[in-house]
DNA sequence: AACATTTTCAACCGCAGGAGT
DNA sequence: GACTCCTGCGGTTGAAAATGT
């Protein structure tokens, strides 16, 4: 596949000019980086022609967005990120780019790959359709509590990113209710949480796009079970509300969690999430539910 | 050590939708 | 409205790396 060349044929591509395909070389990366640093990103077809790269605009765009862009995060997804993916996928399905917007530094490709290689694999092992309600139930009842447990474990050893870091993208969402937009989470979250019993990120399924809300007083959630008792409020498809409900003490611990970066020490995602005992247990669960 | 199998993830493809003409 | 071009998205592929035998 390396160094495969093909003729340009459409989409404004020049007939007769051979195009490279396959893995990018260091030289190509440098060319692309240099071009973008001088001219900015966008106008990919023009970029492809002007930069001297023998690549399509599409290929340049993909390479930049998925690999070269400076804020791209490398390495395994943290439990926090995995949790967020599970949550958001339960609501939006395979809207990878939309989900990626809530995971800074992660691309839609990363998330798509995670879902296909990790999540769908588990579903296959359980013989359950990964898009089924049953699988969602299994995830809600077994996987999510385990992720939260890992998050809590990690919070004891790693300490850098804060809850506001995790929620930043959600809070910055243009559809976020304005009454919350002036809360300074970087400083007030811990105080507010100490005063309140619940922290929730909630959405109305009738209009998921526009009603993303953060409730600090627990006034609209039906579930109040805290993390230590399990994560039973993970969204069911038929529920109108409730993405997640956590006890405030857990949230305070999360504030000390270390969000993915290059120094993320415990490679929890490399642990098999479910061992054979788990799978047996899940199959039992799936059978009786 | 050698080979087979599985997993990961970068990159490709086709399609849809928006903008411009 | 019809057409072309460009961009972005989601599905898929396959080489490389990791793991198992």
Topology, please?
Blueprint: E1 5-7, E2 18-20, H1 26-39, H2 44-50, H3 57-68, H4 79-92, H5 96-100, H6 108-126, H7 133-157, H8 163-172, H9 178-181, H10 185-195, E3 198-202, E4 213-215, E5 244-247, H11 248-254, H12 276-288
Antiparallel strand pairs: 1-2, 3-4, 3-5
This protein binds a DNA duplex (21 and 21 nucleotides) through residues 1-2, 11-12, 21-24, 42-45, 57-59, 61-63, 65-67, 94-97, 108-110, 112-113, 116-117, 121.
> Based on DSSP secondary structure assignment, what is the total number of beta strands?
5
Helix tally equals 12
User: Average pLDDT value?
Assistant: 59
As a percent range, the share of helical residues equals: 40-55%
Rough outline? elongated
Give a short overview.
With 289 residues, the protein is mainly alpha-helical. It is built from twelve helices and five strands. It has two domains: 5-68, Arc Repressor Mutant, subunit A, CATH 1.10.10.60; 79-288, no CATH class.
Which keywords apply here?
DNA-binding, 12 helices, 5 strands, mainly alpha, disordered N terminus, 289 residues, single chain, elongated, three-stranded antiparallel sheet, 49% helix, two-stranded antiparallel sheet, Arc Repressor Mutant, subunit A, 6% strand
Describe this structure in words.
With 289 residues, the chain is mainly α. The protein folds into two domains: 5-68, Arc Repressor Mutant, subunit A (Orthogonal Bundle), CATH 1.10.10.60; 79-288, no CATH class. The protein has twelve helices and five strands. The chain has helices at residues 26-39, 44-50, 57-68, 79-92, 96-100, 108-126, 133-157, 163-172, 178-181, 185-195, 248-254, 276-288, and strands spanning 5-7, 18-20, 198-202, 213-215, 244-247. Residues 1-16 and 158-277 have low confidence and may be disordered. The chain binds a DNA duplex (21 and 21 nucleotides) through residues 1-2, 11-12, 21-24, 42-45, 57-59, 61-63, 65-67, 94-97, 108-110, 112-113, 116-117, 121.
């Amino acid at each position: 596949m390396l160094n495969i060349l093909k003729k340009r044929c459409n989409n404004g591509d020049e007939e007769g000019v051979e195009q490279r395909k396959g893995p990018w070389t260091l030289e190509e990366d440098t060319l692309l980086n240099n071009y973008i640093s001088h001219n900015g990103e966008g106008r990919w077809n023009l970029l492809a022609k002007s930069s001297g790269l023998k690549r399509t605009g599409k290929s340049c765009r993909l390479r930049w967005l998925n690999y070269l862009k400076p804020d791209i995060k490398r390495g395994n997804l943290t439990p926090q990120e995995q949790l967020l993916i599970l949550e958001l996928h339960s609501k939006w399905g395979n809207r990878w780019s939309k989900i990626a917007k809530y995971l800074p530094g992660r691309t839609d490709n990363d998330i798509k790959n995670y879902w296909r290689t990790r999540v769908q694999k588990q579903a296959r092992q359980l013989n359950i359709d990964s898009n089924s309600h049953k699988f969602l139930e299994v995830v809600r009842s077994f996987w999510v509590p385990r992720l939260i447990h890992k998050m809590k474990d990690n919070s004891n050893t790693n300490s850098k990113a804060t809850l506001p870091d995790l929620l930043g993208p959600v809070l910055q969402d243009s559809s976020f209710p304005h009454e919350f937009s002036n809360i300074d989470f970087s400083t007030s979250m811990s105080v507010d949480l100490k005063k309140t019993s619940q922290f929730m990120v909630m959405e109305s399924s009738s209009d998921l796009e526009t009603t993303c809300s953060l409730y600090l007083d627990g006034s609209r959630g039906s579930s109040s079970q805290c993390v230590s008792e399990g994560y039973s409020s993970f969204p069911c498809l038929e529920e109108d509300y409730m993405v997640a409900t956590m006890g405030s003490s857990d949230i305070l611990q999360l504030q000390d969690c270390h969000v993915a970066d290059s120094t993320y020490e415990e490679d929890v995602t490399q642990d098999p999430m479910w061992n054979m005992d788990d799978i047996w247990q899940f199959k039992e669960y799936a059978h009786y539910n």
